[in-house]
Amino acid sequence: MDASGPSMFSRLIKVLTERMFKHLRKWFVTHFFGHHRRRARLVSKDGRCNIEFGNVEAQTRFIFFVDIWTTVLDLKWRYKMTIFITAFLGSWFLFGLLWYAVAYIHKDLPEFHPSVNHTPCVDNINGLTSAFLFSLETQVTIGYGFRCVTEQCGTAIFLLIFQSILGVIINSFMCGAILAKISRPKKRAKTITFSKNAVISKRGGKLCLLIRVANLRKSLLIGSHIYGKLLKTTVTPEGETIILDQTNVNFVVDAGNENLFFISPLTIYHIIDHNSPFFDMAAETLPQQDFELVVFLDGTVESTSATCQVRTSYVPEEVLWGYRFAPIVSKTKEGKYRVDFHNFSKTVAVDTPHCAMCLYNERDARAKMKRGYDNPNFILSEVNETDDTKM
What we know:
The protein is α+β, with helices and mostly antiparallel strands. It folds into two domains: 58-183, Helix Hairpins (Orthogonal Bundle), CATH 1.10.287; 188-370, G protein-activated inward rectifier potassium channel 1 (Immunoglobulin-like, Sandwich), CATH 2.60.40.1400. The chain contains eight helices and 13 strands. Strands 1, 2, 3, 6 and 9 form a five-stranded mixed beta sheet that branches. Strands 5-4-7-8 form a four-stranded antiparallel beta sheet. The chain has a two-stranded antiparallel sheet with strand order 10-13. The radius of gyration is 38 Å and the shape is elongated. InterPro entries: Ig_E-set (IPR014756), IRK_C (IPR041647), K_chnl_inward-rec_Kir (IPR016449), K_chnl_inward-rec_Kir1.1 (IPR003268), K_chnl_inward-rec_Kir_cyto (IPR013518), Kir_TM (IPR040445). The chain crosses the membrane at residues 83-105, 156-180. Keywords: Cell membrane, Ion channel, Ion transport, Membrane, Potassium, Potassium transport, Transmembrane, Transmembrane helix, Transport, Voltage-gated channel. The record marks 171 as: Role in the control of polyamine-mediated channel gating and in the blocking by intracellular magnesium.
């Protein structure tokens, strides 16, 4: 065996070991420290706002209890159901105590040994449990017929009227809150989806930022309106730093940005011109930018006539320069239009200028080349050439 064999084998093991450790180090850094490099988002992909209010004064928090209806509607389901159950059980138990107090004061309970001719305020209340059952029967209007109020004392009659009115109010408020929570247009917004990425490419000879949006229901959104906001940190000439400075980003489709015919997926686009906040960006500098593009879609739900808003956002890593969306709508042999959502967020690379300024400079150069000017005073005269050289 050649002596160089073990040395080559050891070098091979060394190279493989270095590659393995390099791969493990890269994986470790990506999975354990990569989240620290993620950009902070104000609006998540599903439209939730990532914002926290700190140092709110106690007086300001009391305003939430003044607008109790909106506060209850905004609560999560687990808190709402806790309030729902507590409101009914609490009112039944509270009025049960009051009915027990009426029976105790009037000495209707068995421990007082009432006479045979004694007429109680409420028949067949023998303790706290029976008082609770009578309170439940009264408030939910079950009326089994075993326990009932007599005309013996006015206190019981007044308490019966008060509990009946308060029970109707509690039923109306809690059942209305549950129904309003279920029918909120916020749930309708879940069936509106945006593409995972935004793309930048040429459209109609102009450099545009394109986003695809789709309605997953056959019912339409009436009077839909779409627009965007670009959020970024800016420094004013006076030296003031403004975090989350907002700039309008106008999105349109071929027919405008209002009253969209939202029956099939639409590709909305923003023209990157001199008034666009993306005009100074380029394909090379886009990943280093620090911004968040928030896109809004407002509309009226056709079935309920309630307005809803759908939101999503895009950070620089989700904006692909030099791509366009793959086709998604086709026509079958039967004459029906088919939407293939498999290609909804699929993109295709295309030739695209690496900056908006380059596109406009190229167009200006081509326009100047096509320009020509005729000089009417210029006359071309023919000259006869003679050979004056003689041998």
